[in-house]
Design a protein that fits this description.
Elements: E1 32-35, E2 38-44, E3 49-52, E4 57-60, E5 65-68, E6 80-82, E7 105-107, E8 110-113, E9 118-121, E10 133-141, E11 149-154, E12 167-172, E13 183-188, E14 197-202, E15 209-216, E16 219-226, E17 231-237, E18 249-252, E19 263-271
Antiparallel strand pairs: 1-2, 2-3, 4-5, 6-19, 7-8, 8-19, 9-18, 10-15, 10-19, 11-12, 11-18, 12-13, 13-14, 15-16, 16-17
Amino acid sequence: MQASVWTGCAVGMVLAVTLTLTSAQPKAGCYFEQVAGNNTVYLDTYSGSIMPCASGTVFNVKTCTCVHGENKFKWCRPRFAMDFNSKTVKNKVIRYNIGGGETLDLYKGFAHFTEDSSAIFWTFKDRPFDPNLQVQMRFKDDPTSKAKKQVLLTNCDAKDPPGKPSLLVFLDKTQLNHAKKNLVRVRARTYNMSQGVEVVVPFKSGEFNTLVVLKAMDTLSVRIDYEHGGRTINSNGLVGDLVKSNSALRLGSCPMQNNGFVGVLDWFDYYPCWPKV
């Protein structure tokens, strides 16, 4: 559905995407303008700067924002691709089913999550993960929520030892670290590194953040593209394959734990490969 462009990270990753956009009339009061010949950026007329769209999105004049685009590179396809534009949770890759969607409230193109909401990817239960994988999502948290730690993505329980996820992505709003910034923490464990590693990037509360998590080339890399421009990239070494999980991979809360993300999700993609060009 979309791919991302990584620059400046330790392994020198470069991912690219070809996107298309239908021309439209600008929205009244919009301070952004399209840049001729390149719809992956836009002109901020207030500052005079050309700003990048979030990875996998293109600038839409009508909505005065960057919107989800279409990946033209078919050799690395997502296993799960959701945009929440239907009345029920659907995967555009029909072969793989999603469960737990009845806990989500879907309207206006967003999935609305509460602390006990979840969408479950059963295909990963007791099955190995691919050597390379990438997760992409665009989320906006509810800044009024009092929950300080909110799970975005996890397999809740993993083998060797049980009770410790092999993949965990959560919001940390304790504001005790990194100059009191709200943080996204990504933790992963492999058979080679059973204690796992963590990569941390700041997110902007109350705004849309596009999150890209890439495990490839013995590296765990995390990138955030911010709604109004700018990005943060961080990475850490991670050798080996992710530990198989006793539980299915899921967006949101683990069973009976009410520890899930509170806010809205615009779209979510899971690639069992590295969608580079």
